[in-house]
Backbone:
């Protein structure tokens, strides 16, 4: 039995439709929420090993916007890319996806976690956008974060998944106990019902990847790059929504990242870690709404 979502009632009031489009060789599934005639469209790019479901708590708080939320190639319902799933591959895909769906009016690109790197690489390469929002941005190399030891253990885990025979490696990468340890480590809330919801979300969607090559390639991309590489070339107005207990990027690195952008503001949400989208979507949405207004 799945844990109930504390955001289900709000989300249920927002119209939604599922669509597919071919982008960079991937049949990409995406979900469109909100009014089709909204003046502003937000294109959301989710994080590593997730899919569009992870950002739905934020979507639920923003009913007035048109929101387009794809599954990254190789994750969720989207087909893999016919090339390596590295940052360049994902950045090229995002440019092709945006060209295919052709969002109208004011266009905002939002990236969460690994999605912040993908979005930043695409924007630095010329992806057009009126505004940029990065939630839990990866501001510095993950191996240097507050839990660098945990990241190095993750490197070992993914290397083991690659080295084992295919069936055993696939089983390791989808091991429920390991997924739960990751979930428990990231969740900071003390609310037992919210924690159950977060763990259930990870149980359902954290292993929804096409094959082990996809997840291994994407993991290498996630720990080999960060937003600071691209910030100076991102010219649209930018909002960084960070967390004061983020195990991957410390707050000091977020301040350094802000200074690299031509035009960026930083908001730090207290008492939350790398799961802003699950634990404090209301606070994130309030900052997004204020920024866009």
Residues:
């Amino acid at each position: 039995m799945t844990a109930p979502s504390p955001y289900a009632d709000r989300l249920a009031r927002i119209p939604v439709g599922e669509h597919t489009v071919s982008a960079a060789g991937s049949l990409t599934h995406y979900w469109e929420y909100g009014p089709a005639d909204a003046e502003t469209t937000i294109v959301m790019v989710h994080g590593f090993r997730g899919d569009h479901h992870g950002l739905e708590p934020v979507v639920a708080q923003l009913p007035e916007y048109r929101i387009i939320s794809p599954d990254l190639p190789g994750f969720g319902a989207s087909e893999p890319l016919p090339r390596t799933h590295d940052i360049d591959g994902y950045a090229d895909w995002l440019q092709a996806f945006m060209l295919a769906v052709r969002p109208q009016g004011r266009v905002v690109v939002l990236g969460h976690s690994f999605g912040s790197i993908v979005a930043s690489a695409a924007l630095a390469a010329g992806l057009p956008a009126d505004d940029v929002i990065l939630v839990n941005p990866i501001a510095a190399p993950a191996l240097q974060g507050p839990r660098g030891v945990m990241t190095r253990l993750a490197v070992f885990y993914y290397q083991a998944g690659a080295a084992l025979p295919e069936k055993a490696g696939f089983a390791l990468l989808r091991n429920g106990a390991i997924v739960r340890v990751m979930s428990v480590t990231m969740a900071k809330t003390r609310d037992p019902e919210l924690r159950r919801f977060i763990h259930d979300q990870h149980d359902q969607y954290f292993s929804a990847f096409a094959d082990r090559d996809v997840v291994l390639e994407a993991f290498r991309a996630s720990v080999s790059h960060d937003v600071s590489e691209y910030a100076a070339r991102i010219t649209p107005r930018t909002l960084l929504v960070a967390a004061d207990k983020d195990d991957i990027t410390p707050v000091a690195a977020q301040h350094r990242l802000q200074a690299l952008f031509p035009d960026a503001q930083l908001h730090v949400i207290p008492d939350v870690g790398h799961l802003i989208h699950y634990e404090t979507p209301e606070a994130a949405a309030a900052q997004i709404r204020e920024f866009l207004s």
Remarks:
- The longest strand covers residues 16-23.
- The chain has a mean pLDDT of 92.
- The chain has twelve helices and eight strands.
- Strands lie at 16-23, 26-33, 40-45, 66-70, 106-112, 131-135, 237-243, 264-269.
